[in-house]
Amino acid sequence: MNYKIPRGTYDILPKDSAKWQYVQRIFRETAASFGYEEICTPIFEMAELFERSSGESSDVVQKEMYRFQDQKGRDFALRPEGTAPVVRSFVENHLDLQGGRHKFYYIGPMFRYDRPQKGRYRQFYQYGIELIGSNHPFFDAEVISLEMQFLKALGLKKIRLEINSVGCAECSSDYDAALQDYYRPHLAELCPDCQKRYEKKPRRLLDCKVPSCKVLRQDAPSQLDYLDAPCRDHFAQVQSYLNDMQIDYKINPAIVRGLDYYTNTAFEIIVDDLGAQNSLAGGGRYNGLIAAIGGKDTPAIGFAGGFERLLLAMQNEGISTAEPLKPQIYIIGIGEAAQKVVIQLLSQLRNRGIYAEYNPDKSSFKAQIKAANAMGAAYAGIIGEDELSSGMISLKDLASGEQSTVDPSDLPNLLIESKNKESNNL
RNA sequence: GUGGGUGUAGUUCAAUGGCAGAGCACCGGAUUGUGGUUCCGGGCGUUGUGGGUUCAAGUCCCAUCUCCCACCCCA
Question: What is the complex's ipTM, to 2 decimals?
């Protein structure tokens, strides 16, 4: 084998594509029921867009972006996440000046130069929504409920919703200072990673997995105690709306979104038994982002989820998604003379939208009916010498074994009728 | 970027340093046109790749790559 797929990427083969179509369809339907419409943005953008939005110090920008220059030396990056491009498009198309609320959803591949592992790839597919133009806490709850609704529609049960508030720019920097004050005397006891975090992003100290760091964290100040009055009120209202929507959640002060632009509400949906990468979706409010990339100051909230993890979780819960494609009829032709009639019939049926199969590679009657059975065809249509002379077709119901003789002109309607009957029974 | 594991037929896996094999899948057949069972037949694969040790390497050594798991990070 000469050519190999790039590391951390994968092909979606026909045997799996129905699953992908299914989850995407359910997501689109769910989004539509909340009034969200699709937005498609390019797969690459100016690298600077992501530096601005995610934060130059973030890992995503520092070491995970696929960056490249084009023939004119312009600095681009394959998009590592979906929010910045949507916001860029929002501003570029002057929707910020138009006012009002805007609801977007997107589906597509994202790229991050990570070390691949379970539930983590270098090209991975995300779905997400963005609601731009309101700071009302109702919409925080609505965005969360859309995601919960989607997961429920898929039949996932073993999921947990955790929420937090990271406050606005002011209270969040107050909190960082408080955390540093707390950790300063213990600096030497922290793991090397945490010592770096202390400087760069003190909040990251809260989700370190090293036992000694976990112990220290127990008495650390909580973000929630450092929220100013408006932020505290906002968070309380979000919870109240979630209660009204009968959505279960747990407050987890350790939830820290990785990207710099988050404010106030942050949430994450976690699935057990998924391995280390157990975060199925995450999101939050990002009131400062639109202004940060040059638009009119506009509040916004959204989330993103990963399809790979979704599919893993569904597999874990034994949720089956799609039936394999089965022919409605498999046409068996015997002898050279039959082939012409077979092909004409095949075309007629396909023109009527009926999935009909025929395989001239198999010549014997036995091989053909075996294939019909193996493919799960509902019927076998037989055309041999007898049928050629009578102008009729022998039609065999492969489930019951019953065989009848039908006029070729009646066949399409007959097949469509039986298909309808079958889907009504489901 | 760090650590551990891994790689043999389409697939799942065998093979004390000594002839690379089996199950499943796939294809064909079992007296001329009736399917899930059964029986019979069908396998030379750069043993991931490149070096090295050896009379002899799938097996030992080195390098490299993939995949898996974890750290990290995150969806």
Answer: 0.87
